[in-house]
Design goal:
This protein is an alpha/beta fold. It is 30% helix and 31% strand.
Length: 159
């Protein structure tokens, strides 16, 4: 009888440990968001949403102020439409701008909010068009190589 009680306690302890590890793994991968604060949803339009994903952070001054809910393609404007859930306790002016940023050199991408100066604040359903798209590393490299090639051609013409 004593041994079966110990087996039950050990099994329960292992089960709680496994649940805790699963919870931490989901939290660290941004696949689980346990936030019970009220939010309001705004839509931002980007020419290139880069590597943004649902549940990615939305930050202002380094503080997480919201999360991305959904990313879709608008076939009328040919832009990415990003739905953002901002926490109600954070109010941003209507002329705020959004940027797709990267944490670190090759880290995950998130949206950064630069507050504007308008006296009116963003509200449920507002659309933000003042956005800066993600920087695409391949485009930067090709632009650099193209400029280097153009400099090389200009150097040979002068000789």
């Amino acid at each position: 009888m004593q041994r079966s009680k110990n087996d039950i306690w050990v099994g329960l302890f292992v089960l709680i440990g496994a649940i805790a590890i699963l919870f931490l793994a989901l939290q660290s991968a941004n696949l689980l968001n346990l936030n019970f604060e009220k939010t309001y949803t705004v839509v931002a339009r980007f020419d290139n949403a880069g590597g943004l994903k649902p549940q990615s952070a939305v930050r202002s001054a380094g503080v997480v102020v919201g999360r991305i809910e959904r990313i879709s393609f608008d076939d009328k404007t040919f832009q990415a439409s990003v739905e953002i859930a901002l926490q109600s306790r954070y109010q941003f002016p209507r002329d705020s701008s959004l940027k797709v940023l990267t944490s670190g050199l090759l880290g995950e991408q998130y949206i950064g909010i630069e507050p504007g100066f308008d006296e009116r604040f963003l509200a449920q359903g507002d659309v933000i068009t003042q956005t800066q798209s993600a920087v695409v590393l391949e485009n930067l490299i090709s632009q650099f190589l193209f400029n280097r090639a153009a400099e090389g051609e200009a150097g040979t013409e002068n000789k």
